[in-house]
Design goal:
CATH class of the largest domain: Mainly Beta
Strand content: 35-45%
CATH architecture of the largest domain: 6 Propeller
Length: about 280
Amino acid sequence: MNKWIIGIVTLVLVLAGIIYTIYQLNDYDFNDAEKSYEIVDTWELPSELNEVSGIVYEKNDLMICVQDEDGILFTYDMKARKIINQHKFSYAGDYEALTYLDGSYWIAESNGRLINVIDLDVADQEIEGTQLDFEYRNNIEGMAATSNNKLWITVKDRNLDNSSGYKGVYEYDPASNKLQREPVLKIDYEDPKFDRLKTHNPRKLLRPSDLAIHPTTGELYILDAEFQKIVVTNKQGTIKSIHLLDPAEFEQPEGIAFSSDGRIFISNERVGVPANIREIRFN
């Protein structure tokens, strides 16, 4: 009987080793990669921004931040390394994206509600906003302003028509209050650049947590917090490069922003360590 037990245990261990080896060969490990960036600086954020979910860089080293629970815009002074202003724009919600367009701020809630804040100096407000044709199942987390005064919005989960095989980026025109239901960009899951990730699981290929458009090249930078990375595409959605982020340095990357001269900032929610903003530079 003991020989049978030993044999069964040995067989189980061998099978477990084989399965683990196959898994390792077919799953990406950050340690397998050559790091494609360096961290220039880090700003540890106060507890009010533990759930920081979107950022916009302003001139004079000011960062406008939103966190996903309260309808408040925070002005963070990067030189003084502290919050210097707060502006309430709405009631508590699930605010996941922030961008700046044509003199005002736009905030997106995960269910597709958009709020436009024109002036941070006015008294606290309760802005109802505009509900777009998204639902919680689409899960809006990324938004960026384009050079032709449109807003590009991406879903983290389901596309608007429930189709699969790609991640959709949708265009909203604030002037006409129209959302284009056909994606303006489709990030194709079959793009060969994804091959390096060694997976066909859509949850690992791309689940955007934010978007930003490079101020000079016009390239789209898509941040992913679940499988930490930045996917860079051209204006047609073709992937140009994928930059894996070290999970030890980017625990929960939820916001990305550019300065006018192309500096890159990424904000991390609190996960074990304090929330922070890191400036990076690609090698």
